[in-house]
Design a protein that fits this description.
Elements (H helix, E strand, L loop, with lengths): L4 E6 L8 E4 L5 H10 L3 E4 L4 E2 L6 H12 L4 E4 L2 H14 L2 H8 L3 E4 L2 H9 L13 H11 L5 E5 L6 H9 L3 E5 L4 E2 L5 H11 L5 E4 L2 H13 L3 H10 L2 E4 L2 H8 L13 H14 L4 E3 L2 E5 L3 E4 L2 E5 L1 H12 L5 E2 H5 L8 H15 L5 E4 L3 E4 L7
Parallel strand pairs: 2-3, 2-10, 5-6, 5-7, 7-8, 10-11
Antiparallel strand pairs: 1-15, 4-9, 12-13, 13-14, 14-15, 16-18, 17-18
Helix pairs in contact: 2-4, 3-4, 3-5, 8-10, 9-10, 9-11, 13-15
């Protein structure tokens, strides 16, 4: 038998009652901790695996090439990527020659973290945009001209075809530096379970901290023939919160609505989610109480009542048209194929008990049930 309620807790945590999926491979624990602090339940499964740089022979070959033939311009796109590049070369004993070669290059940093990594390596950048935008870096280069110049760009986990194509069209010889490559996770079962939770209504929001993670989730869904259901859920039911616009790009190709904070930081990402996700659910005044639905809970006067999936489906149905009567036949559809008419009465009774005030759900004789709104529904 399904339990009525697993928790009733007074809280001001903005994400209490919501379940959030974390797809990050790097900094997943930090992101999970921040979400827990906001009250969320978290389902975490990496959508990708980072290839160890010290094992990446493509990076070693490109680094040796740039040491022998220094680039005119070197672009650092991420702090962790630039640092990882230098650290990988240290394991091969080639870092000092590479850095010496870079001292003859013009160095551009895509943002403050990339700038910090350049300076930590004992180098000095020529310029960095305040917006951390690849488009601004491209405009800067095109305005000054790149005809006949050799431009090395440190990739941040995925190719940048538009960026590199624009430079090549402008006459540059572009060298792509494949720092921290991504591939499929070694263990895919956790990711498959995460996809199932998203497609079956068990997740309210999915977070992405890199474009490869977004692409990796979509690729795994395609490999398991769950991509139609996943894309539908992300388009219509589940909030998608990215750390920035670059991360959102693979999702936008599939017309999936995405949100991101003004600053591309995971702290800002969590704060943005804590603002946007609760705002999807309006506050209702019901039987003298302020009531608000959450993903797997109902908040009544600041107390979070965590409900079973069955009771949550009944509650969502009542709240879809607040104040309007929902027939017993309609509510029966929330209870599964084996349920009978008596099951509706039983579920409503359990729901009233779980919410702490039986007057929240009103019986309308011979018609069904409704939320007892204090004002007429708009």
């Amino acid at each position: 038998m399904t339990s009525t309620s697993t928790a009733a807790e007074t809280t001001t945590a903005p994400l209490a009652g919501f379940t959030v999926a974390v797809t990050a491979a790097r900094r997943a624990e930090e992101l999970t901790a921040l979400l827990h602090r906001k009250g969320a339940q978290v389902i975490a499964a990496p959508a990708l695996r980072i290839v160890p740089l010290s094992d990446d022979q493509r990076l070693a070959a490109v680094s040796e090439q740039l040491t022998r033939e220094p680039a005119d311009i070197v672009i650092a796109t991420t702090g962790i990527g630039f640092r990882g590049w230098v650290e990988a070369c240290e394991t091969w004993g080639t870092a000092e020659p590479l850095l010496a070669a870079m001292r003859s290059s013009r160095l551009l940093a895509r943002g403050p973290k990339a700038k910090g990594a350049i300076r930590a390596a004992g180098l000095t950048e020529e310029w960095s945009p305040p917006s951390e935008s690849s488009a601004e870096v491209l405009d800067y280069l095109l305005d000054r001209g790149v005809q006949g110049l050799r431009v090395a760009i440190q990739l941040h986990g995925e190719p940048l075809p538009d960026f590199t194509a624009a430079l090549r069209l402008a006459g540059a010889d572009v060298v792509e530096v494949p720092v921290y490559r991504w591939t499929q996770p070694e263990q895919t079962a956790p990711l498959d379970r995460l996809i199932e939770s998203v497609t079956t209504g068990g997740v309210d929001a999915v977070t992405f901290t890199s474009a490869p993670a977004a692409a990796g989730l979509l690729a795994r869904a395609k490999a398991t023939d769950t991509d139609p259901a996943l894309v539908h859920a992300l388009r219509h039911d589940v909030m998608v919160m990215c750390v920035g616009p670059v991360t959102a790009r693979p999702l936008m190709v599939h017309d999936i609505p995405t949100l991101w904070p003004d600053r591309a930081r995971i702290g800002a990402q969590v704060r943005k989610l804590a603002q946007e996700l609760p705002a999807r659910f309006p506050t209702l005044t019901v039987a003298g109480h302020r009531l608000r639905l959450r993903g797997h809970a109902v908040m009544v006067e600041g107390t979070v009542h965590t409900l079973s999936p069955t009771l949550m489906r009944v509650m969502r149905t009542l709240a879809q048209r607040p104040g309007q009567v929902q027939s017993r036949t309609h509510l029966l559809g929330c209870l599964g194929e084996d349920a009978d008419a008596h099951a509706v009465e039983s579920a409503v009774a359990r729901l009233r008990t779980a919410l702490g005030d039986p007057k929240i759900i009103q019986t309308v004789v011979k018609r069904g049930y409704r939320l007892a709104l204090d004002t007429d529904p708009c």
